[in-house]
Design goal:
mainly alpha, elongated, 0% strand, 147 residues
């Protein structure tokens, strides 16, 4: 995660780059936004944080989106299936098996059978990895006992 000072500097640099690319002056943008030139300069130099309402105003004056100043990538949201898989992976194996049985019992919703198969596959993968880890731990304990 990015630290606040670094984030403030990045936002300021993005704002300055966008302002320069739009060929607008520091004084002109500051006047249009109703702030001092010094305030805008501090924001662009990463010395002062930018609040949301001022971000929106400055973006509109420069003619860009607020997201481009923030440099926020458009990250797709995980699908419901991906969120389900992540949640299931976080469960202990026994709990996962109970979920599989519950899904299999209530197979009325469309796609429930395929979800049950997916859950079972995840449970099997986790069980296999768990077995490998246990075998590795046994091997390490054996090697530690050797003189």
């Amino acid at each position: 995660m990015m630290e606040r000072p670094q984030l403030t500097e990045n936002i300021g640099a993005n704002l300055r780059a966008a302002r320069l690319q739009s060929a607008t002056s520091l004084a002109g943008v500051a006047a249009d936004a109703g702030i001092s030139i010094a305030t805008l300069s501090r924001i662009e130099n990463g010395k002062q944080a930018l609040d949301t309402s001022l971000l929106v105003v400055l973006a509109a004056i420069i003619g860009i989106s607020p997201a481009s100043i923030l440099d926020v990538p458009d990250t797709p949201r995980p699908s419901n299936a991906e969120m389900l898989v992540a949640a299931l992976r976080a469960l202990p194996v026994k709990e996962r098996r109970r979920v599989v049985r519950a899904v299999e019992r209530d197979a009325s919703p469309p796609g429930a059978a395929s979800a049950a198969a997916l859950i079972e596959e995840i449970a099997e993968d986790v069980a296999a990895v768990t077995n490998k880890l246990q075998a590795a731990h046994r091997q390490i304990r054996k090697e530690r006992r050797r003189p």
